[in-house]
């Protein structure tokens, strides 16, 4: 595994901006990933798309579960938003894609098992929990909205199943929520010493890498579609 996450980052601006910049250089490579590119180009079947949804299901079952456990924590609890929980939305999506027997159809990949294990491993460290929460949800609320619109065009999905994972109606204004979320990150950063800030930045980079590896594991589907 690459050790990019060990790089030291200077916190010279807001903490939320520093976290964003920590993975910015990796975004282009992730967006050009073979699986995601093929998906956005409409070259994959609905079941091929379902493979990504299935991996999200395992990851978010873990993340939502940890969130529920930490709801009363004085630090981590600031980042627990029940409106963000994705497990039920993903169940609707999988039922739409695979039918009522979807639970027997899906299995976590090796990369997903590694991601889930890491989410549980850092659950007792508020900074680690927030790192994984931030990496997933801020992406879902940003680039994930473009993905949703494209998938609706490609597969004809409507609200109620298929792309419910990307729909956050309970949040109201997404820009306003993201602004509030970043303000909480900035407040958290002010409470952390330099060592803990660097530790959390490293975890954000690791979380991003692990999520990217989940997508990379799906590349074999692109070869099938070629």
Automatic annotation (TrEMBL):
Transmembrane segments: none annotated. Gene3D superfamilies: Heme oxygenase-like. It comes from the Bacteria. Keywords: Heme, Iron, Metal-binding. This is Heme oxygenase (Biliverdin-producing). It comes from Nonomuraea salmonea.
């Amino acid at each position: 595994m690459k050790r990019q996450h060990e790089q030291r980052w200077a916190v010279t601006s807001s903490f939320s901006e520093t976290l964003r910049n920590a993975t910015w250089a990796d975004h282009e490579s992730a967006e050009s990933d073979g699986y995601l590119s093929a998906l956005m180009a409409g070259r994959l079947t609905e079941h091929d798309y379902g493979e990504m949804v299935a991996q999200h299901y395992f990851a978010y079952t873990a993340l939502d579960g940890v969130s529920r456990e930490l709801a009363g924590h004085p630090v981590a609890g600031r980042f627990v938003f029940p409106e963000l929980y994705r497990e039920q939305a993903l169940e609707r999506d999988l039922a739409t894609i695979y039918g009522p027997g979807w639970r027997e159809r899906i299995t976590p990949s090796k990369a997903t098992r590694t991601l889930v294990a890491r989410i549980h491993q850092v659950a007792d460290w508020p900074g680690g929990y927030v790192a994984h929460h931030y990496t997933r949800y801020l992406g879902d609320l940003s680039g994930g909205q473009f993905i949703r619109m494209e998938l609706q065009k490609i597969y004809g999905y409507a609200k109620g199943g298929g792309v419910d994972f990307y729909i956050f109606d309970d949040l109201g204004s997404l820009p306003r929520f993201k602004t509030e979320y970043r303000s909480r990150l900035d407040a958290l950063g002010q409470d952390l010493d330099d060592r803990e800030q660097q530790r959390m930045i490293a975890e954000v980079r690791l979380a991003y890498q692990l999520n990217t590896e989940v997508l990379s594991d799906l590349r074999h589907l692109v070869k099938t579609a070629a």
